[in-house]
Amino acid sequence: MGRDNATYEALILVEVEDDEAAEVYLMSLANLRPETDYRLVGADRDTAAAKFGDVACVRFARGTHITLASGAQVPIEDLKIGDHVLTRDAGPQDIRWIGGTTLRAVGDYAPVVIREGALFNSRDLVLFPDHRLFIYQREDRIGAGRSEVLVKVRHLINGDTVYQQDGGFVDYFQILFDDHQIIYAEGIAAETLLVDARTRAALPDGVASDDHNDTPHQAFEVTESLANRPDVVSLLKKASSS
User: Fold this and answer.
1) For the segment 149-180, what is each residue's pLDDT rounded down to a tens digit?
2) Rounded distance, CA 8 to CA 29, Å?
3) How far apart are CA 233 and CA 133, in angstroms?
4) Rg of the chain's alpha carbons, rounded to an integer?
5) CA 62, chain centre distance (Å)
6) What is the per-residue pLDDT across 120-157, written as a single tens digit (0 to 9) for each?
């Protein structure tokens, strides 16, 4: 609770060594002001794992056009289980599950907007901050050491062509396939929901298969130190078109 008596949500993460707390971290799920006192007024350990996993679930905003196997561009909210979606690595794949939720667009839930054309996207693309885009570099301009990379959109924010849209509410949608896939959203490649030890806790029981696989993409992620630079968007755009 803040000085204004408003309540805010956050996750308190405790790093344990030899059964003792070594470090304590705060992951804000709202906009907390620096150098401001807040008071802990309640804690819910039963839902902590699901909340933690929820932050890691990649999401597309309402209105995002997804490419089907037929080539049709369909708004994500109009998709249904069983629809054939075009994937980069496995051709047409059936949607296993779609999840939708409305969240306050604050803190780590505030969406990132990639403006039309910034990375050759055909319209503005609005994603969850930890959502990763797939980019094939014809020339390695960011020093990743490989041509195929996955980049978190939060690391692309430059305040101009890529920015975080804070305030109000946002409708988010998740797409799950039998395995982790790269699909096409507004004409550019983006990942689908990855089921792992963290995100599984945030999903309904029985939705994800036990053998959900992300092996083809495990080594693709670009570190923040490589991606978090003011010219990374223009570099990646040039790298993918060289």
Assistant:
1) 999 999 999 999 999 999 999 999 999 999 99
2) 8
3) 12
4) 19
5) 14
6) 999 999 999 999 999 999 999 999 999 999 999 999 99
Which amino acid, 226? L
The SS3 assignment for 183 reads strand
Count the residues in the chain: 242
Of 52, 67, 81, 69, the C-alpha closest to 178 is 81
Q: What stretches of 9-109 adopt beta strand conformation (E)? A: 10-17, 20-28, 60-61, 65-67, 73-75, 84-87, 91-94, 97-104
Q: Which of helix, strand or coil describes residue 214?
A: coil
Token pair 């902590």 is found at: 48
Q: Which two tokens stand for residue 54?
A: 């929820």
Task: Assess contact for 241 and 137: CB atoms under 8 A.
Answer: no
User: CB neighbours of 167 closer than 8 A, spacing ≥ 6?
Assistant: 105, 106, 110
